[in-house]
Design a protein that fits this description.
The chain is an alpha+beta fold. It is 32% helix and 26% strand. The strands form 5 sheets. Strands 1, 2, 7, 8, 9, 10 and 20 form a 7-stranded mixed sheet that branches. Strands 17-16-13-14-15-12-18 form a 7-stranded antiparallel sheet. A 3-stranded antiparallel sheet has the order 3-6-5. The two termini are 21 Å apart. The protein binds flavin-adenine dinucleotide (FAD).
Length: 402
């Protein structure tokens, strides 16, 4: 039987940060992960370059049943604090777009920074450690652990759950944190895949799958929410940053609106073209505005599936027809069938209900000594480095109190 002040389950972004902070306070810390290595999601993140934070991080970039819950932690450990840590370790980085900061080199640099800081802070890290039964008793917890075929038990005063969400199970993601929360009678907001591609039904797919690989900048809306970024047609439906962003807001049965030419009033452009070059074919005009494959598809689909008839020379097209064509581009309405699910989702919506936790310490109100941090909590960031900033900030906050 081993005894620590703090046991942290999950050596991802949040768990590593909490371990460093608790270790700096001279708390003895055991950090456990069932994966072979710490920080596996950091390693694969941002296409291998880790979009580690966002210059514009603010509470508005997070979804939660309680949108105010994230405010305190984000204020106490900001994007500037993490940037200072990166700079202190001499890691070169750049802003890619929209405030998103990436390593110039590799995401492995972030993992080695965190592991170095863990070593400095005296953290004991066990990877390949299977966590078994967790029990509460007077003054703390005991955690059963199996490692290298040997069974052990660790006791602690503070137990931190940093096991993330169930997205990408093949990376070691589990619903362990939710099960543990429920075992202690804490409410869990039902988890849903987020930042995930959307799929089409078979009939729509049959019409659109030949567009797979086409990408363009678009504005996508769902209810009152709107994002402007790149959109990508896939073999299953739609993806690209703008779709991943909207997927966090989309619910089954809802329609989304896509503006395929957000900087242009297509009706006005078509009218202008009709006066300036009446003999030109509609498909050639649209091919100047949109990727050619998409332009041809729109013309063929409108002629075949609406009552617009043949759409040839622009001179032959009435205002009414031009309006219908423009609407198909400036306001394409589509009803996705679903999402690609946890298999490809970058994050999970929902998680441990924030009402159950202190926003200052992340301790469960009903269970003194039990903490939940990172993605396992019902706080989910937009795409663009916000989810890591949440992991760093919540890990930092809990690290001050465990
Ligand atoms: C492909 C991909 C790319 C991403 N890119 C970015 C990006 O560039 N920027 C960004 O901000 N966010 C990105 N994200 C999201 C980001 O990775 C997560 O939000 C973040 O890792 C959450 O940190 P966490 O510490 O809460 O959980 P995780 O990083 O998921 O860590 C949880 C840890 O707990 C361990 N664990 C789980 N269950 C158990 C168990 N039963 N016993 C022991 N250990 C367990 C896991 O092995 C894991 O190491 C990406 C996600 C994916 C999937």
């Amino acid at each position: 039987m081993l005894s620590f002040d703090v046991v942290i389950i999950g050596a991802g972004a949040a768990g590593l940060m909490a371990a460093i902070e608790a270790g700096k306070r001279k708390r003895s810390v055991l950090l456990l992960d069932h994966a072979k290595a710490a920080g596996e999601k950091i390693r694969i993140s941002g296409g291998g370059r880790c979009n580690f934070t966002n210059l514009h991080t603010a509470p508005a970039n997070f979804l939660s049943q309680n949108p105010r819950f994230c405010v305190s932690a984000l204020k106490r450990y900001t994007q500037r604090d993490f940037i200072a840590l990166i700079e202190a370790h001499g890691i070169a980085y750049h802003e890619k777009t929209l405030g998103q900061l990436f390593c110039d080199g590799s995401s492995k640099q972030i993992i080695s920074l965190l592991l170095q800081e863990c070593r400095k802070a005296g953290v004991v890290l066990w990877t390949g450690a299977k966590v078994g039964k967790v029990q509460k008793h007077n003054g703390g917890f005991s955690v059963a652990i199996e490692r290298d075929g040997e069974r052990d038990k660790a006791t602690c005063g503070s137990l931190v759950v940093a096991t993330g969400g169930p997205s990408i199970p093949k990376m070691g993601a589990t619903g362990f944190g939710y099960d543990l929360a429920r075992a202690f009678d804490l409410i869990v907001v039902p988890p849903l895949p987020a930042l995930v591609p959307l799929t089409f039904d078979e009939a729509t797919l049959a019409k659109l799958k030949h567009l797979a690989g086409v990408s363009l900048n678009a504005v996508v809306t769902c209810g009152k929410t709107r994002f402007a970024e790149a959109l990508l047609f896939t073999h299953r439906g739609l993806s690209g940053p703008v779709i991943l962003q909207i997927s966090s807001y989309w619910r089954e049965g809802e329609e989304i609106g896509v503006n395929l030419l957000p900087d242009d009033d297509v009706f006005a452009l078509l009218k202008q073209a009709r006066s300036a070059r009446p003999r030109q074919e509609l498909k050639s005009i649209l091919s100047e505005l949109l990727p050619r494959r998409l332009a041809l598809h729109i013309v063929e689909d409108l002629s075949a599936s609406s009552n617009l008839g043949a759409l040839g020379r622009i001179a032959d097209l009435s205002d009414k027809k031009l309006r219908r064509i423009a609407a198909a581009i400036n306001d394409w309405r589509i009803l996705p069938k679903g999402t690609e699910g946890f298999r490809t989702a970058e994050v999970t919506l929902g998680g441990v209900d924030t009402d159950e936790l202190s926003s200052k310490t992340f301790e469960a109100k009903k269970v003194p000594g039990l903490y939940f941090i990172g993605e396992v909590v019902d706080v989910t960031g937009h795409l663009g480095g916000y989810n890591f900033q949440w992991a760093w900030a919540s890990g930092y906050a809990a690290g001050q109190y465990v």
